[in-house]
Every structure is written in C-alpha cells, then in structure tokens.
Amino acid sequence: MNIENLMRKNIRSLRPYEAKEIKCRVKLDANESPYSFPELLEKALSVKTNRYPDPEGLALKKAASRQWKIPPENLLLGNGSDELIYYLILTFGGPVIFPEPTFSMYGIISKAIGVKAVGIKLDKNFDLDTEKFLSAIKKHKPKLIFLSNPNNPTGNCFSTDRIFEIIRATKALVVVDEAYQPFSSKNGFIPLLHEMENLVIMRTLSKIGFAALRVGFLISSADIIKAVNRVRLPFNLNSLSQTVAIEVFKNYRRIMKTVKEICKERDRLYKALEQLPGVMPHPTEANFILFRVGNASRVHRALLKKGVLIRNMTPLIKDALRVTIGNPEENNLFLKALEAVIK
Ligand code: PMP
Question: Does residue 292 sit within a domain?
C-alpha cells in the first residue's frame, strides 16, 4: 500500500514540527519556564472525569477577561495557541504572510491546510522590512499576516510604528502573536483592540510555567471570534486545563514575579554572553537569547555532550543558537559548558 500516494499532495512534502525528547541534564531548548507550580493542580482533583468539559470554557474566559480587561466575547480558547493558528488559517485561508525567520508553525499549518504561505525576510536588525511587506501585501492580497512580537527565534520586538503601518496598509487580519509578551518591556497590543478592527492577538500560558496545560487565547473583535468559533472542535480544551488555568489567573501576580526573575537572569546571561570571545548575542525581550557563534552546529553538539540542550537555529539563521533562560543554576551550567566548548 502506498501511503504517500494516498496523501493530499501538500502533505507529502510536509515535515512534522521538530519536538523530539532528547535526554539531557539542562533543558534550555523549548522556551519553557524553569518554574513549575504543582500546588495549582489541587483543584483539578475535583474535576468530574465522566463529564465533558465546558465547551465554551466560560469560567476561564471570565478569569482571563478580568486579567486583561476585555469582555469574554472577545476571547476564544485554544489547546495551546498552536490550535488557534490552525483555526485562523482554516477559517480565513490564505495567502498567509509572515516574516522570516519566525515561529515555524505559521508556515507548517499553512502547508498542512493547503494555502499559500509567503515569508518576507526581516531586515539586518531582525526588524520588519516595511517596504517588502507592503509590496507583498499588494502582490499577494493576503488573508492573514502573522507577527510574533517578541519574535521567535530572534527575541526582539518589532518597531511598533512598523506594525501599525502594516495593520493600516492591509485588509487582511494581522495576528500579533504575543506568546512572549510577559517578558517584554513593551505593553502589548490588547489596549489597541478597539481601535483596529483587523487586529487579532494571541496569548498563551505556555511560556510562564504552564506549557503542560496547552492553553492559548485568541483576543479580537466579537465578530472575528464568532467566525473562528465555527471551525473550533467541541470540547477543544479539557477540564483539567480549564480548571488549573483559572487558578493561574488567581495567582497571576505570584507567577509574574517568576517572570521578573527570568528577565533578570536573561539580562545577566546576555551580559555574560557578550563577554565570551566570538559569541554575539542578539538583543532580546523574550525568555530566550539568540546568539551567533562560529561553528554553531559543532558547539551545539559539544554542549549536548556536556548534558546541555539548547536549540540549533542553523541553517535558518547562519551560525546561530537559541538558549532559553533557565533558573540561575541551569544558566550557570550552560555558561560554564559554553565557555569550555568554545575554548
Ligand atoms: N507562538 C510562538 C511565537 C511560539 O514561540 C510558540 C511556542 N513555541 C507558540 C506560539 C505556541 O505556543 P502554545 O504552547 O500556546 O501552542
């Protein structure tokens, strides 16, 4: 039986998102938080396992709505923001435009669904090249534009003015993916929601200590939410995650303290990387640092031999590695290993 022939054509050349489990002592490859909050799981014990979850996730929407000061009808819940990217492209189709390099799922999901994906190279500072973007908008007439802000894997925020320019220049929905916003010095786009009808925002709990829950949020006008809700699978967010996510919002301040700790460590790590000969870190507003180093793939392998797993960004970005900020001990182990390797 030839499975390849049975597949839709666009799936034949599709490669799965790389998320292999690699054994290591220090895991700094997936932009997770080093802090876990097992005490917030207690409430999950009262979940009725025989019942389906609340299909709308109303209680969770209310909790998020209080935190972000937006009405629940402006929110849609996803099984991680990945699922929301999927739903957006399923609902509105393509062409889909995004900068390059950026989070790979915008392209992977476009391909899986079978819509055209157009990557627009960032400028030399990894900021948006508005000229290229505006001409791509004219040429391709996109339905969706994804902007990860801060951007993964470069770590920087794009200039707010340039994002505005793109939002104004297009009839497409502009999705500002704020997965890393809690680590950024900028405010984020939620307060601007009512001024821009084609603005869509995504948030996630994955980077602040709850990647295991898979909880993402789509934030936009009630009409866009209603449209995307048409393709949402019933019960897409399980009861355990809904219950614990409500606890996350009850404990938001305490969790944000750990985010502050991570930012402090990020700044320390950045300075230490700057001091290492041949290592060039890129300015970051996220919980990771992209840095250039000669022979990046060899450095990556040598680090892994020492039990330290980070992300190799070559060939996407030449001679670049991405390290997630861990706890102080993990960061020290990483620094020590890197120092030894480049010597
Ligand atoms: N957006 C960006 C920019 C990301 O880096 C990630 C995680 N790697 C996601 C979305 C997906 O997050 P989630 O865990 O909510 O699916």
Answer: yes
Distance CA 127, CA 243 (A): 38
Q: Which of 196, 216, 250 is the last residue of a domain?
A: 250
Task: For residue 84, give the ligand 1 atom closest to its CA.
Answer: 16
Widest distance between CA atoms in the chain: 59
**pTM: predicted TM-score of the whole model, two decimal places:** 0.97
94-141 residue pLDDT tens: 999 999 999 999 999 999 999 999 999 999 999 999 999 999 999 999
152 lines ligand 1 (CB under 6 A): yes
Residues 223 and 121 in one domain: yes
Domain that holds residue 228: 54-250
Record the tokens describing residue 133, joined without a space: 């973007």
Do the domain assignments include residue 72? yes
Q: Quick check: 317 pLDDT over 90? A: yes
Q: Which of the four pLDDT bands, split at 50, 70 and 90, describes residue 305?
A: very high
- How many residues are present in the chain? 343
Domain boundary (250, 280, 315) is at: 250
Residue 139 CA, ligand 1 centroid: distance in Å = 29
**Gap from CA of 6 to ligand 1 centroid (Å):** 31
How far is ligand 1, taken at its centre, from the CA of residue 161, in Å? 24
Which residue among 177, 178, 218, 241 has the greatest number of ligand 1 atoms within 8 angstroms of its CB, and so is best to mutate? Answer: 177
Residue 181 lies in a domain: yes
Q: Is residue 192 part of a domain?
A: yes
CA separation (Å) from 308 to 112, 151, 262, 271?
33, 24, 18, 20
